[in-house]
Write a structure and sequence with these properties.
- With 741 residues, the chain is an alpha+beta fold.
- It is 24% helix and 25% strand.
- It folds into three domains: 20-27 and 445-588, Aldehyde Oxidoreductase, domain 4 (2-Layer Sandwich), CATH 3.30.365; 34-136 and 192-268, Aldehyde Oxidoreductase, domain 3 (Alpha-Beta Complex), CATH 3.90.1170; 150-183 and 280-443 and 595-739, Aldehyde oxidase/xanthine dehydrogenase, molybdopterin binding domain (Aldehyde Oxidoreductase, domain 4, 2-Layer Sandwich).
- The strands form nine sheets. A seven-stranded mixed sheet has the order 3-5-1-15-12-13-14, with helices on both faces. It has a six-stranded mixed sheet with strand order 9-19-18-17-10-34.
- A hairpin with a 4-residue loop joins strand 31 and strand 32.
- Helix 7 (354-372) runs parallel beside helix 15 (714-726).
- The structure holds dioxothiomolybdenum(VI) ion (MOS).
- Dioxothiomolybdenum(VI) ion binds at residues 210, 240-242, 245, 348-350, 352, 507-508.
- This is Dehydrogenase.
Length: 741
């Protein structure tokens, strides 16, 4: 077992965001806040059809409008070094950069109007009055499906083991049910914005990014310039959720517009334009076939996902991947198919795959429990996976039993009647209780960091990580401080632009563990360098202690065998005649541990809903989540991540639904008035319990990610609570009152 890292006072501290005051006073500058000299404003014109060709644009009318500088169309868009349709790896999404007149989805960018003011650009875009040659459109899930090779960013489309048919045949009780989940469109508070400025072939770009290194490489490839010529600034993001993991068409169009007019250009995606060019979570139709013995032990688990993707690119929502690590079963199948339709390509969205898969699986488990007349939590305990079902690997840690127990206790689950429609509140509303299991992989990408300890005893630590709002400015500083043996206030963290060491991704719940390990290792390397200076210096109280014999704490190095013999970092540097000492560190998964163990965070979510028996109105009245995700870097920030995930779970279960006109492929509700999201009044008393878990294998700090797990389990728990309140099983998510009546 690898040695676990000792940590200081900063990790685990319940701190508010260090950047909070800057955010609430407006000092924090987001991409669209950067005003450069000579800045022009760009507005996209987007397609009003979903398939066909643009046959005419009234460019002359737009350019005649006062303030309009240029209209960028396929005829004058600057040439790229690489086709926007070229793919470079699993993150190489195709882009729509005015490469031709073809239209492949509604709201696809078809022109960009560049003007002295936002108002002029907006009016110019309206004056373009596009004409189209329209082709017949197909959207929805019906159609000839294809079996993809891979789903998500490279998971196999099919996985499983054992004889599922035999398992179903031998079962005492079987359920088969098909669930639909609606498409959800990325709508972070901050839409995709970019301020682009060229000087020769050097580009400065202010834009939100969850993956600065990937963005730099993508832009370098498209424009045929060295990555070193590109400076991307992304200090703050107003949310990301996967849509800012890859650069999107609007961001590149801003760069192209700046190149075309030779002046800095700002382009902010309008809210209604978020529906299309920046990605979405695809709709799914999932069929679950579960077989169980009389005691509730599963005999077979079959999870088939039908989803949709675009006609021109390949992202497949991987709803089935979660069934591969969730419940024990002697036979299991997890398969995917997709239909190609006239929509924009789906993309990652918070817990991509797990979120949509979880709601179907947890609903099916609930149906099976009802069929068996068994408590739904008991059913899950009887099928607890002691090893990861498909890989058969042991879990690096799995405190799921504790999550079930602590969540159930806090919620009061034990007094739940098994049958539905048994409880009413004082106002006569139907009360229902449901639960679901939460899980999300604990993965790492790769990151580098640099740490410098200066003569005054303070430190600078750097890595190109990203703060989407989750609190990276704080949690990464906490990890760095402990890695350096310094108090938090002595450490300055620099993140959020691409000239820093590659910080990996803020995605897949990997950011804190990956960049955190890089910062930790860089800090440890600096301490080793300081120790080297001290132990070899006869004037030092540490002389002769040897590297292994000293420890850093509070900005001092002390002998382990005699802590009274110590000296400060400043004293060591002063005597050595050095201004500073610096070192680098890397954060990455340990391949041997990854090979030996399955690594996941786990949780259990319990929900109470109130349903009006006459009107069908549904309200979530209580939500309790209990999550185990290894070492907790900052309880306040982690709880906030769980709350955010659980709120999205409420949205998934009851609100979010991007509706499309099947005849035209156009959106019916691409605005935040009609694309429903929960508001404060929809969000009940929530509680997130931090279940203790020590994981010696995920990484030496023992950190798992927390960004995505909260959405898993939650939507299913709410759907199950609706059934428990009403006795009506709605398999069409989101559950709205019309489906109850
Ligand atoms: Mo997340 S969908 O990896 O931002």
């Amino acid at each position: 077992m690898p040695e676990r890292v000792r940590h200081g006072a900063a990790i685990g501290a319940d701190l508010a965001r260090l950047d909070g005051p800057d955010k609430v006073t407006g000092a924090a500058r987001y991409a669209a806040d950067f005003r450069l000299d000579g800045l022009l404003h760009a507005v996209m014109a987007v397609s009003g059809i979903a398939r066909g060709r643009v046959t005419g644009l009234d460019v002359a009318a737009a350019e005649a409008h006062p303030g309009v500088v240029r209209v960028m169309t396929p005829e004058n868009v600057p040439k790229l070094a690489r086709s926007p349709d070229a793919k470079d790896g699993p993150f190489g999404f195709k882009l729509d950069l005015l490469q031709d007149e073809a239209v492949r989805y509604a709201n696809q960018p078809i022109a960009v109007v560049i003007a002295e003011t936002l108002e002029a650009a907006t009016e110019g875009a309206r004056l373009l009055a596009p004409r189209y040659a329209t082709e017949a459109v197909r959207v929805g899930l019906d159609g000839e499906p294809v079996v993809p090779e891979a789903v998500g960013p490279g998971a196999p489309a099919r996985a499983g083991y054992g004889d599922v048919a035999a398992g179903l045949g031998a079962a005492q009780t079987c359920i088969e049910a098909t669930y639909e989940t609606a498409a959800q469109y990325h709508n972070a508070l901050e839409p995709h914005a970019a301020v682009a400025s060229w000087e020769g072939d050097h580009l400065t770009l202010y834009t939100p990014s969850q993956a600065l290194a990937l963005a730099t490489a993508r832009i370098a490839g498209l424009f045929g310039i060295p990555p070193g010529n590109i400076h991307i600034v992304s200090h703050y993001l107003g949310g990301g959720f996967g849509s800012k993991g890859m650069v999107t068409s609007p961001q590149i169009l801003a760069i192209l517009a700046a190149r075309l007019v030779g002046r800095p250009v700002k382009l902010v995606t309008r809210r209604e334009q978020m529906f299309g060019p920046v990605g979405h979570r695809a709709a799914t139709r999932q069929t679950l076939k579960l077989g169980a013995g009389a005691d509730g032990t599963l005999t077979a688990f079959d999870h088939h996902t039908l989803t949709q993707t675009s006609r021109y690119d390949d992202f497949i929502e991987p709803s089935g991947i979660i069934s591969r690590n969730l419940y024990a079963s002697p036979a299991l199948a997890s398969t995917h198919e997709a239909v190609r339709v006239d929509i924009a390509t789906p993309i990652f969205m918070r817990a991509p795959g797990e979120a949509s898969g979880s709601v179907a699986i947890e609903s099916a488990l609930d149906e099976l429990a009802a069929e068996l007349n068994l408590d739904p939590l008991e059913l899950r305990l009887r099928n607890y996976a002691e090893v990861e079902p498909v890989s058969k690997k042991p879990f690096s840690s799995k405190a799921l039993r504790d999550c079930y127990a602590q969540g159930a206790e806090r919620f009061g689950w034990a007094s739940r009647p098994t049958a539905p429609r048994q409880m009413r509140d004082a106002d006569g509303l139907l009360v229902g209780w449901g639960m679901g299991t939460a899980t999300y992989p604990a993965s790492m990408f790769q990151a580098e960091a640099r740490a410098v300890v200066r003569a005054d005893g303070t430190a600078l630590v750097e890595t190109a990580q990203h703060d989407m709002g989750q609190g990276a400015w704080t949690s990464l500083a906490q990890i760095a401080a402990d890695g350096l043996g310094l108090p938090l206030e002595s450490v300055t963290l620099s993140i959020g632009h691409n000239r820093l060491p590659n910080g990996g991704l803020a995605g897949g719940s990997t950011g804190t563990a990956t960049a955190g390990m890089a910062l930790h290792n860089a800090g440890q390397a600096v301490i080793a360098a300081l120790a080297e200076l001290a132990v070899n210096d006869p004037a030092s109280p540490l002389y002769g202690a040897g590297n292994a014999g000293v420890a850093a704490e509070g900005g001092r190095l002390a002998r382990r065998d005699d802590p009274a013999r110590s000296e400060s970092f400043s004293e060591i540097l002063a005597r050595a005649g050095r201004d500073s000492v610096e070192a680098r560190g890397t954060g990455a998964a340990d391949p041997a541990a990854k090979k030996a163990y399955a690594m996941h965070a786990h949780g259990a979510v319990f929900a109470e809903v109130l349903v009006d028996p006459d009107l069908g109105q549904i309200r979530v009245s209580r939500l309790v989540g209990a999550f185990a995700a290894g070492r907790i870097v900052n309880p306040r920030l982690v709880r906030s991540q769980y709350y955010g995930g659980m709120i999205w779970g409420v949205s998934f279960a009851l609100h979010e639904h991007a509706a499309m006109d099947a005849r035209t492929g156009r959106f019916l509700n691409n605005n935040l008035a009609e694309y429903h999201l929960p508001v404060n009044a929809d969000i009940p008393a929530m509680e997130a319990i931090l279940v203790e878990e020590a994981d010696p294998h995920v990484n030496p700090l023992g950190i798992k990610g927390v960004g995505e797990i909260g959405i898993t389990g939650t939507a299913g728990a709410i759907a199950n609570a609706v059934w428990h309140a009403t006795g009506v099983r709605v398999r069409d998510i989101p559950i709205t009152l019309d489906k109850l009546l």
